């Protein structure tokens, strides 16, 4: 009796092991989840014009990233929902399932690739430096940043670039809008942001100045972030991005969004 019980116990343990093994091997198909729900939930940080920002007339999140998101949702045959949050919280929201994808001018750095996967690059921008107009003749080169405080958005590639500037102090904040106010009040000496963003803010703030100092996008441009091991969803996103690039629609989205930013401030 004791022998039979021991054998039975081993069989049960083996069966449980097989069940658990099967559960581990069964990956969730994120594309099927989205299509079954009928909605694509996109995470973004709407303080980065012309990528994503708030329309002052409607209060809605707009920008060229949002136009790309609309196209992805359309090609998937689902509705689109935008979730706003701080840039530094986007990848956590993605990995925990609060959003399906992230579209926020995000660069696919090696560190980020440890936790999420990325689409093909859909846009490459140059990093630029803006200063207060009073300092346009004071800060004209990288050497002039020694002893200065550089503002950057927390958790971005700009923060990594600033950290490499010798002799400079780096101040990280969660929102670009807060950084711009810090620059306007001269609490920081300069900001590093992508060129389209720099151009938008300088065009709409006559006390700011876009320097000739630029930084190459060493890590490659912007891409869509998705959960790890989501090949079906990633393939569909890349298909949409290729279509948009082939039709030159992304360039149009960038131009339209930049024009909207400028029009809102007139």
Give me some keywords for this one.
D-Maltodextrin-Binding Protein, domain 2, 12 strands, alpha/beta, 2 domains, five-stranded mixed beta sheet, single chain, disordered N terminus, 266 residues
Description:
The chain has helices at 2-25, 30-37, 64-76, 90-95, 110-113, 157-163, 176-184, 195-203, 231-246, 249-264, and strands at residues 39-44, 53-54, 61-62, 79-84, 101-102, 116-118, 127-132, 149-153, 169-173, 190-194, 208-215, 225-227. Strand 2 and strand 3 form a beta hairpin. Helices cover 42% and strands 20% of the residues. The model is unreliable at 1-11 and 21-25 (pLDDT under 50). The protein starts with a helix and ends with a helix.
What structural class do the secondary elements suggest?
alpha/beta
CATH topology of the largest domain: D-Maltodextrin-Binding Protein, domain 2
Secondary-structure element string: HHEEEHEHEHEEEHEHEHEEHH
Strand residue percentage = 15-25%
Query: Strands of the biggest beta sheet: in what spatial order?
Result: 4-1-5-12-6
State the helical fraction. 40-55%
Rg on CA atoms, Å: 23 Å
Low-confidence stretches: 1-11, 21-25
CATH architecture classification of the largest domain: 3-Layer(aba) Sandwich
Per CATH, the superfamily of the largest domain is Periplasmic binding protein-like II
How many distinct folded domains?
A: 2
Dominant shape: globular
Mean pLDDT over the full residue set: 88
DSSP summary, beta strand count:
12
